[in-house]
Amino acid sequence: MEATSGFDVLAVATRAVALDIEVASHDELRWADRAADRLRAWVDAWQAQVEFRLTLPPPLPPPPDWLPEDHPQTDRDTDDPATDDAEPLPSLGEQPMAVESPQEMLRKARRMRLLAELPSFADALLALRITTAHVDLLAAALDALPEPIRLRVLARGDELLRNACACSADWFRRAIHRIVSTAYDDEGVDRAVRQRAQSGLRSGVDAASGMHWVHVTVDPERGAALLERLRNEREAIFHSGGHTGLNSEQVDLQALLNLLSQPGSDQKSSPNRTHLSVIVDIETLALSAHDRTVCETWSGAAFPPDTARGLICAAEMTFGFAIQGRVVHHVANARLATRDQQRELRMQHRTCGGPACTRSVDHCQVHHIIPRSRGGPTSVPLMIPLCQRCHDLIHHRGWTLSIDPDRTMTWTAPNGDQTVIPFAGLADADQPSLFEPDPPAA
Fold first, then answer.
1. How many other C-beta atoms are found inside a 10 Å radius of the C-beta of residue 317?
2. Is the Cβ–Cβ distance between 333 and 378 less than 8 Å?
3. Fewest C-beta in 10 Å: which of 113, 360, 367, 401?
């Protein structure tokens, strides 16, 4: 029952069941949280193997008694494990099992197929070198690909596994995008054309609630422009005071409805121009794409370098040169961050700066490390994007946050526990550079 050295599944599960959460110590609760992650990965890998076996044909029935003993069919092994005198299976309880959603059934089917096609991922999951999130991200990406491209990506399974073992699931998403894009290039399909062909809109009405729903899939170029329009309108709603009584999702909806209205009526932002932000590393822009290319919209969607070059020439975008993920900062005396400062923060952070928080930066507020009430400057080195929940930790729940010149954040809980979050940026620190460092001063 050992998945990897030092991890005994049975011992951990037994201890977890016996743990009384109400009286457990802080160290025991931290152990339990980590144990849940490890057990979940082991169970997911084990279940995928079980479900794959269930898809195989059932064993052939035993030969009939009337066949002669020297008949070839009587020579095969007819032992059926189900007929052996095995210990009865434990009861799973009398309550009916919860009905799985179609989405969860689809995730399991994708996971099972991927682990069957890439056994190395199943081994890594059982050994706790990767998580279920890594597997599900890759499985969903493969499921959306045409078969020739899918086979090319599967052929690079060893490279995918090395990336998965070396980074978090959020960063693994970028590695998947890069390898899929390379597969399309190898197949001779233009990525921008392919992304536009995959764009579309679906809408309908939920039969149970009567609520209307809309699902839009847009290529990075048009999607970034659309989201920038939405962000501008949302900012305008906040500055006009129209957000009172609305939560974040309702403000986003109101921003969309405003954009659909006639300019000059409900629309708050300027309808004349859309500002598009793209992050691109210098080597990709100046030369060509490489193994560590960063060329994407502020939200992390991969962007073709040729398209980025064309937009820069047309002066339709702001571009940030990524040097270990940092860009030149702006300083302002205003109470709120300027548009340029907000764009700069988006170039440096894709998600909320809170501990283990993956909320998109598009749904975050700009937090002043030194509060404005104490004279704190509106300066990018002293600001960080935080979602509403993490913002509330500081303002209402006794947490404190500090940041050093390298943008390493230190979160301190009310009980004194500290969580240090090193600055990751948008590119790996060992990304190749076109330029030699400046010589030491004489």
1. 19
2. yes
3. 360
Euclidean distance between CA atoms 125 and 7, whole angstroms: 13
Q: Which structure tokens are listed for 407?
A: 């943008």
Helices (H), 188-219: 191-197
For the stretch 374-406, what's the b/e string if a residue is b when 16 or more beta carbons lie within 10 angstroms of its beta carbon? eeeebbbeebbbbbeebbebbeeeebebebeee
Calculate Rg over the CA atoms of the chain: 27
Q: Can you list the residues of the chain whose pLDDT is less than 70?
A: 1-6, 56, 58-86, 92, 94-98, 262-278, 282, 285-288, 291, 297-304, 306-337, 372-373, 375, 425-442
Name the residue with tokens 């890439």: 118
Q: Domain map of the chain by residue range?
A: 2-55+101-189, 197-202+213-274, 276-421
Are the CB atoms for 303 and 220 separated by under 8 Å? yes
Looking at every residue in the chain, the average pLDDT score rounds to 75
Interval 380-425: pLDDT, tens: 888 888 887 888 888 778 888 988 888 889 999 888 888 888 887 6
The residue type found at 391 is: H
Alpha carbon dihedral 376, 378, 379, 385, in 10-degree steps, equals: 100
Q: Which two tokens stand for residue 330?
A: 């702006």
Q: Which residues contact 172 (CB under 8 A, 6 or more apart)?
A: 134, 137, 138, 163, 164
Cβ(324)–Cβ(432) below 8 Å = no
Q: Is 203 strand, coil or helix?
A: strand
Given a contact cutoff of 8 angstroms between Cβ atoms, the answer to whether 141 and 176 are in contact is: yes
232 vs 268: CA distance, rounded Å = 9
pLDDT in tens, 353-373: 888 888 888 778 888 888 766
Indicate yes or no: pTM above 0.85. Answer: no
**Pair of tokens at residue 37:** 């992650």
Query: What pLDDT does 433 receive?
Result: 39
pLDDT recorded at residue 442: 40
Is there a contact between 184 and 191 (Cβ–Cβ < 8 Å)? yes
As given in the structure block, the two tokens for residue 102 are 């179609």
Q: How many CB atoms lie within 10 A of CB 130?
A: 24
Please give the backbone phi and psi of residue 38, each rounded to the nearest 5 degrees, phi first.
-70, -40
Contact (Cβ atoms closer than 8 angstroms) between residue 280 and residue 322? yes
* Strands 317-322 vs 276-281: parallel, antiparallel or unpaired: parallel
Instruction: Give the H or E element holding residue 410.
Output: strand 409-412
